[in-house]
TrEMBL record:
Organism expressing this protein natively: Nocardioides pini
Cofactors, names only: pyridoxal 5'-phosphate
Keywords, alphabetical: Aminotransferase, Decarboxylase, Lyase, Pyridoxal phosphate, Transferase
Protein family (similarity comment): Belongs to the group II decarboxylase family.
Lineage summary: Bacteria, Bacillati, Actinomycetota, Actinomycetes, Propionibacteriales
InterPro entries: Aromatic_deC, PyrdxlP-dep_de-COase, PyrdxlP-dep_Trfase, PyrdxlP-dep_Trfase_major, PyrdxlP-dep_Trfase_small, Pyridoxal-P_BS
Name of the protein this chain belongs to: Aminotransferase class V-fold PLP-dependent enzyme
């Protein structure tokens, strides 16, 4: 017998485990003094690493040392209190510990039988979360529907499209592929790029996505234009299969009118998928649910606790009204996974709810977040983000060098310099390059705009004010 490798002893594991948690706590404490955006050039990080893996094992401490020396300078600090770019990707202490426990358990939850608790905890946590968001009962696991945790909203949208194709084709797509049936998918010009990618992955091709115009003022889907597009396509012999509604677009947080879209698709048998990746979690607050009005008519819904809601990436929660369409599209049963529980029909095998087979016990981190914050704690987090965004909007209104581009959407504020596009981009780049804060941009109706997304778990009003002062100084520099 060859020698066994030397695994850490339980005592070493405890010691290094404590050191790793200490490292994280120290890292967070140091963030305030670090530039938010990475300050390295391409290749800078690679150059600091040896060309090959060590032949002989090193102490774990050497890796922690390299985190400080090699990794931290090459990081953009997403947990920084002045990270306002894109959308937040909040971690939280509770979620990290939950994730760690999931790693320690190391179970595969591909089917119920491979670890029943992985499936059943996930079902209960998703039912809890659906209730906390005020989602319709139809999405709960005790009826025909149910929820599942996926890696990302992109995967959820892809999965929704596969289910939609299955339903619309009566199972034909599963057997023979999409063929040349003329399938059409609809989303607004502001729909997330994962919609086009889903059409590409499903074999429909990007031309199968028909983009629908938006109202220039609100950036929300023009529902009359959707109706006209679907009528025109149907008359031309094409087959509408899915409409993607954005409850909070990535660019400006625009809210498509779910109920109005539902009216258009209701009698056409078209799948209605609601992408609320960022804004959906705000529905933990009853006063921030209006953007989901009409969701009771949706066939599927996705939101990402891994953005705003304190659940370390990856955790994307996806619900369907009728799980049969999903499992019909994706179920597969190789001999080596045959088992009595599956055959009894009494259990859910999550393998049939997404593209991949293997799956982590992600529910623990969401369970840890829901239990330690409580729904009230999560509401407080969302409310503080929304209040800070209102504060930003007030600051914009009070300085005539700036103007709002769209109405604030929950915790996202989109504004620009009145001086013009070039000045807008230059002022933002100035702040980003200084490391004081990190903002990102978009274009709205062809004009440049700055996006300031509040909602990081570590952001205070002082951080927002400090960022605003940096922007004001930058505005002064670029206009003089
Ligand atoms: C962020 C975002 C996505 C993509 O989320 P992933 O989980 O990274 O795939 C999709 N749709 C909207 C509206 C988003 O804001």
């Amino acid at each position: 017998m060859p020698d066994q490798p030397s695994h850490m002893t339980p005592e070493e594991f405890r010691r290094h485990g404590h050191a790793a948690i200490d490292w994280i706590a120290d890292y967070w404490a140091s963030l305030d003094d670090l530039p938010v955006r990475a300050q390295v050039d391409p290749g800078d990080v690679r150059r600091l690493l040896p060309a090959s893996a060590p032949d002989v094992g090193e102490p774990f401490d050497a890796l922690l040392d390299d985190l400080d020396r090699v990794v931290v300078p090459g990081l953009t600090h997403w947990q920084h209190p002045r990270f306002f770019a894109y959308f937040p990707a909040n971690s939280s202490p509770a979620a990290i510990l939950g994730d760690l426990l999931s790693s320690g358990i190391g179970a595969q939850g591909m089917i119920w039988a491979t670890s029943p608790a992985v499936t059943e905890v996930e079902q209960v946590v998703l039912d809890w979360f659906a209730e906390a968001l005020g989602l319709p009962d139809a999405f709960r696991s005790d009826g025909a529907g149910g929820g599942v945790i996926q890696d990302t909203a992109s995967t959820a949208t892809f999965t929704a499209l596969l289910a939609a194709l299955h339903r619309a084709s009566g199972g034909d797509v599963r057997r023979h592929g999409v063929g040349g049936a003329g399938w059409r998918v609809y989303g607004s010009t502001q729909a997330h790029s994962s919609l086009v990618k889903a059409a590409m992955m499903a074999g429909l091709g990007e031309d199968a996505v028909r983009t629908v115009a938006v109202d220039p003022a609100t950036q929300a889907m023009d529902v009359d234009a959707l109706r006209a597009a679907m009528t025109e396509d149907t008359a031309a012999g094409l087959r509408p299969v899915m409409v993607h509604v954005a409850a909070g677009t990535t660019s400006t947080g625009a809210m498509d009118d779910i109920a109005a879209v539902a009216d258009v698709v209701r009698d056409r048998g078209v799948w209605l998928h609601v992408d609320a990746a960022w804004a959906g979690v705000a529905a933990v607050c009853p006063e921030h649910r209006s953007h989901l009005a009409g969701v009771e008519d949706a066939d599927s819904f996705v939101t990402n606790p891994h953005k705003w809601l304190l659940t370390t990436f990856d955790c994307s929660t996806f619900w369907v009204r009728d799980r049969a369409a999903l499992t019909g599209a994706l179920s597969i049963l190789p001999e080596y996974l045959r088992n009595a529980a599956t055959e009894s029909g009494e259990v859910v095998d999550y393998r049939d709810w997404h593209p991949q087979l293997g799956r982590r016990f992600r529910a623990i981190k969401l369970w840890a977040v829901l239990r330690t914050y409580g729904v009230e704690g999560l509401r407080a987090h969302v409310r503080s983000g929304v209040a800070l965004a209102e504060h930003v909007a007030d600051l914009v209104a009070a300085d005539d060098r700036f103007e709002m581009v769209t109405e604030p959407s929950l915790s996202l504020v989109v504004f620009r310099l009145t001086a013009g596009d070039e000045q807008t981009m230059a002022a933002m780049e100035d702040v980003n390059a200084s490391g004081e804060a990190y903002l990102s941009h978009t274009t709205v109706e062809g004009r440049a705009a700055i996006r300031l997304a509040v909602g990081s778990w570590r952001t205070t009003e002082a951080d927002v004010d400090r960022t605003w002062r940096a922007l004001q100084q930058a505005a002064g520099r670029v206009s003089s």
